[in-house]
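I am writing to request your help with a piece of structural work I have in hand. Thank you for your consideration; the sequence and its tokens are set out here:
=====
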Amino acid sequence: MGKRNSQRKNAAILESDDDSSSSSSSDRMSEWGTEEVQVHKDSLLEQALDALYEKRGSTRERALASIIDAFNSSLQHGFLEKKFATLLHQCLNSIKRGSSKEISLASHAIGLLALTVGSGNDAHKILEDSITPFSQALKSQSDSSKISSLLECLAIITFVGENGTEETERSMQIMWQVVNPKLSSNVVASKPSAAVITAVVSAWAFLLTTMDGFSLNPMHWQESISYLSSLLDKDDRSVRIATGEALALIFEIGSVEKFCGEAKGSSNGLTQDGIKPREGFPHIQGLKGKIINQVRNLSAEAGGRSSAKKDLNSQRKLFRDILDFFEYGYCPETTVKIGGESLQTSSWSEQIQLNFLKRFLGGGFIKHMKENEFLHDVFGFTPKKYFLDDEHHISSAEKRMYRSPNSVLNKARTQLLNKQRMLSEGRNLGHFAVNVGDEEV
């Protein structure tokens, strides 16, 4: 009885007007010290967690929204030390039984949970416990927002919690089957929406950033480049943009032939690299030439009446960058200011990771980049507060020496490997990396 009364009380709290509740909460917290504020936050999280036991779906949805806000505004390590398993279990229950909205919210909460705990046993438990319910939910016919949320979360929990390339490729295959299902006879697949295709390609490419060409299983990705090439002709601009980034990444990591083999029929006759001898380099070169032409056209596409100018300019810029990469080996460089420090990317892999995590974290991105050690390790980034005071007059070069493991060396090595791969591609496949060898590393 006590548990049910507590749940009813928590449900009543969550049923109250969101704006007035949030406003009064902020007013109270501004009057308290840091310790009291944290106690209040933990209490609200406890109430939201209890509300996830309620039968009413709208109550669970509000509770999940509260949990997401809490994990975006601060890293809830203290709360998770006590309630990690309970929160994961309840979120997975929402995945199994909830409405599309509840599933989307629960997916986001699980992704935030993984990013907060960082790599290790807890993150791996999140991945292993989530694989089956996520796979089942992705197979059900439902709205695009639910599928997109599941795909984003699957990408995040795999990125954080995988224990090897086999687990990463397992998740990538689950994603791929959303748009390319392996169907038995007499089963008709529904046509995925543009939003779902975009989500699949983005999540798949995000995980591909963690792989190298040598570790990929070619049997999993037969004809994937042909499929991606076909997506560049789609009407939806978001599909084309996500696809362009994925193709640039494939060429950056090398072993392009693993994405080009023929999928039809048996695997008999495949070479060690996973392609049929009759295809070989001429087949790859033909695909590459087609893609370069598509990229060139998209980099100079004229806008129609229905084209939003901002989206069109974004597409042109992206495909100009991709064309420069294909023809000259140049990777785009980006800089994001975080708390007075610059987070820089110098490869397609880094850019895709940064953009994906920014989209997923939304308003919590800056907070996590300042305080989340897992993300510091991912990007080799150390926030300003970790440096010595300004009175010590640390130079930019000295600051870089403090950054998490060998970020400058890693970027230089990435650039060198990119150029070496381009040169190798050029020798094997013809004119692809013009003048790459003339640059200095």
Observations:
- The radius of gyration is 24 Å.
- The first strand starts at residue 334 and ends at 338.
